[in-house]
């Protein structure tokens, strides 16, 4: 442990880019869905899991502990993914309760479910570091995390052997405990820039305005009327500004009021599957 402590202290004090510029991660293709024979013919059905050395995992855990203070201070209650003391199941229960109350009081409820396509693979590194700085993350932690991603190289392990090493320019490592924290802060920046917290659009619940519930990389937008489309446009615009246009892929709404340029691009359903939980208006 003393040797590990000395190594981590050295990494924090010295030129971090040179210290961590190593071939230290391997990505393994993991099965997602579909026929295994077609797995390598359809890239969208695969997901890469980064295999990180155990020594690096210890350092990442230390960084995560120090990031928790900033994360809990900056992230709102509507984000339930990757948080201490809460989980996505809590928001599923909250959404069911909102739907029940809307039926009970005969209120209209409009919902839009946003599924970010390849969310963890799409985010830009430089913009993540800017988000961390603006949210008050200690500068030395930002520099340390940035050094772990700068000039990183990896190889993909397949049944036919390992590929050549290549550089990675965007996305977070799936399998790294720092990735959820980085993505949460990135997604929070999108919502802040969209102005959802200050918007009057949403559902009034006990003197509070609720217009979104977040389940890590999934988001539900809520409204009492067709102003839901305005929320969708705000989120879409900010995603484009932050370079994650491809993240907005699948959307579906309940009780869509009328056909517009926005609603035509939304897939309407009478039943939804949200994080393995089935939701229906009745």
How would you sum up this structure, described in words?
The protein has 282 residues and is α+β, with helices and mostly antiparallel strands. It has one domain (2-279). It is built from nine helices and 13 strands. The chain has helices spanning 2-13, 16-20, 54-74, 88-104, 119-122, 125-134, 139-149, 179-194, 228-241; strands at residues 25-31, 46-51, 110-116, 153-158, 161-162, 166-167, 203-205, 208-210, 212-215, 218-223, 248-254, 272-274, 277-279. Strands 1, 2, 4, 5 and 6 form a five-stranded mixed sheet that branches. Strands 9-10-3-11 form a four-stranded antiparallel sheet, with helices on both faces. It starts with a helix and ends with a strand.
Count of structural domains? 1
Radius of gyration: 21 Å
Distance between the termini: 58 Å
Largest β-sheet summary? 5 strands, mixed
How many E strands?
13
Instruction: Assess the beta-strand content as a share of residues.
Output: 15-25%
Structural class: alpha+beta
- Categorize the overall geometry: elongated
Element-level helix/strand string: HHEEHHEHHHEEEHEEEEHEEE
Discrete helix count = 9
If you average the pLDDT, what whole number results?
75
Ranges where pLDDT stays below 50 over 5 or more residues in a row are 246-252, 256-266
Fraction in helix: 25-40%
């Amino acid at each position: 442990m003393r040797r590990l402590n000395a190594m981590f202290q050295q990494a924090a004090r010295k030129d971090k880019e040179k210290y961590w510029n190593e071939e230290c991660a391997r990505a393994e293709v993991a099965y997602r869905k579909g026929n295994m024979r077609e797995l390598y013919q359809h890239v969208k059905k695969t997901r890469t899991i980064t295999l990180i050395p155990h020594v690096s995992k210890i350092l990442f855990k230390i960084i995560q502990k120090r990031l928790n203070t900033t994360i809990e201070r900056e992230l709102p209650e509507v984000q339930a993914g990757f948080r201490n003391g809460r989980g996505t199941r809590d928001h599923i229960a909250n959404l069911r309760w909102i739907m029940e109350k809307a039926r009970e009081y005969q209120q209209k409820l409009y919902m839009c479910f946003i599924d970010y396509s390849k969310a963890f693979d799409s985010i830009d590194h430089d913009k993540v570091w800017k988000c961390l700085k603006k949210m008050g993350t200690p500068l030395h932690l930002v520099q340390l995390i940035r050094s772990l991603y700068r000039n990183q190289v990896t190889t993909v392990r397949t049944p036919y052997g390992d590929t050549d090493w290549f550089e990675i320019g965007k996305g977070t490592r799936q399998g790294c405990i720092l990735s959820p924290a980085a993505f949460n802060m990135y997604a929070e920046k999108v919502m802040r820039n969209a102005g959802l917290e200050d918007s009057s659009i949403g559902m009034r619940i006990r003197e509070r305005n609720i217009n979104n519930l977040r389940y890590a990389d999934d988001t539900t937008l809520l409204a009492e009327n067709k102003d839901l489309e305005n929320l969708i446009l705000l989120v879409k615009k900010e995603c484009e500004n932050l370079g994650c246009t491809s993240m907005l892929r699948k959307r579906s709404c309940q009780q869509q009021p009328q056909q517009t340029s926005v609603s035509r691009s939304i897939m309407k359903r009478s039943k939804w599957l949200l994080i393995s939980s089935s939701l229906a208006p009745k």
